[in-house]
Design a protein that fits this description.
This protein has 367 residues and is an alpha+beta fold. The chain is built from twelve helices and 20 strands. Helix 1 crosses helix 2.
Length: 367
């Protein structure tokens, strides 16, 4: 018997997040482990009158491709994938890894080459999303690997996921619409502001948001959601930050990251664990040492670290920054093959000032 929360989850993704319409070409990319959700999503896409295109992925196969490919193979972009990014109306990404550490034995240089080759594809994807011609949402289906990383049983993790996404509620769409209204007030307050200062035991940063737009993230691109973000002026970030949670990229966990910025650029980077990997990635291309995203997590229903960035970057009482590519709709002009989110707790002795006014203190909004 199918968990009714799975059907609720699928309906949220199709009817609220990407708002599938009759005639839309909807790409459903899912892990084999996520088949129950893939099936439920395809059903909802069909009920919406849209045309689903289904692509199933398997981590073992993805590992083989990375491990065995030569440089030319790593650099090749499939014309099929280019066609999808150029012309599809919506993407629904359903992730459920078999093993979250499956790529830790892969040469980081191979990952860098593959990532760099996909830069233009990522740029086109983000441009179309910013223009509104491409709708997308990404989520994770609760599975054993993610539950283990979160240090929960699968049953506990399922309850956590369906609670965070409101899939366990009678009116999940109404709940997300309320989130949208609450965050719209914050975004409106930030309109036409200029300078942001962050102070606390883990950060002393300043950045400019002049001419930039804060985006209200309420479940249309990520599920679950709960953040407001912008792309800071590229050369404006100065100061230092120590990220209090591990940053995970392609299955590699980098702990104790400390960055120092000067005129927007990372001029010093260190980590307590996997520092060489950190340094490799931030040298992927010139844009990888600049900040593409600055965000504040607003989902106070997520209070524990799970090692899944989809959930962790939304933790109420935290902020995060992404090195690399920014989202054009925020005004960001930073381009890179990298987009790597890193999270910092702000719940103790911390504050955010905006144009000299107290905006946020100890994890709570003050306006």
């Amino acid at each position: 018997m199918t968990d009714p929360r799975v059907d609720n989850f699928a309906s949220i993704l199709v009817n609220y997040s990407v708002k599938a319409r009759p005639g839309d070409w909807v790409i459903v990319q899912g892990s084999v482990e996520a088949l129950p959700l893939v099936n439920a999503v395809v059903r909802q896409v069909l009920l919406a009158g849209s045309h689903p295109e289904i692509f199933l992925e398997n981590d073992d196969v993805r590992e083989t491709v990375l491990r065995e490919s030569n440089e030319a193979q790593l650099q090749r972009i499939s014309p099929v994938e280019s066609l999808l990014v150029d012309t599809a109306d919506a993407f629904i990404h359903l992730h459920a890894p078999q093993n979250t550490r499956i790529f830790t034995g892969i040469d980081p240089q191979k990952q860098r080459i593959r990532q760099a080759a996909r830069r233009e594809l990522l740029k086109k994807y983000m441009q179309r999303a910013a223009q509104g011609s491409l709708r997308w949402v990404a989520t994770e289906y609760p599975c054993q690997a993610l539950a283990q990383d979160a240090e929960m049983s699968l049953r506990e993790y399922e309850d956590f996921v369906y609670s965070a996404t409101f899939a366990d509620q009678n009116d999940p769409v109404g709940a997300w619409e309320q989130v949208d209204l609450n965050q719209a007030r914050l975004v409106e307050w930030l309109k036409d502001k200029n300078q942001v200062i962050l102070r606390g035991p883990n950060c002393d940063l300043q950045l400019s948001i002049t001419g930039r737009t804060f985006i209200n993230c309420s479940g249309t691109n990520n599920m679950p959601d709960g953040e407001i973000f912008t792309g800071p002026v590229e050369e404006s970030v100065n100061g230092w930050v120590r990220f209090t949670y591990p940053a995970i990229h392609a299955g590699r966990e980098v702990e104790g990251i400390e960055l120092e910025f000067m005129d927007g650029k990372v001029v010093s980077a260190k980590a307590k664990k996997n520092e060489p990997y950190l340094l490799t990635l931030i040298d992927s291309d010139p844009g990888a040492r600049y900040v593409g995203e600055f965000a504040i997590g607003t989902n106070y229903g997520i209070q524990r670290f799970t090692r899944s960035i989809l959930f962790d970057e939304k933790i109420g009482g935290s902020f995060h920054m992404a090195l690399g590519a920014g989202y054009p709709e925020s005004g960001s002009q930073n381009e890179s093959s990298l987009h790597w989110d890193m999270i910092c707790d702000m719940r103790q002795d911390s504050e955010i000032l905006v144009d000299g006014e107290l905006f946020y203190k100890n994890g709570q909004f003050q306006v």
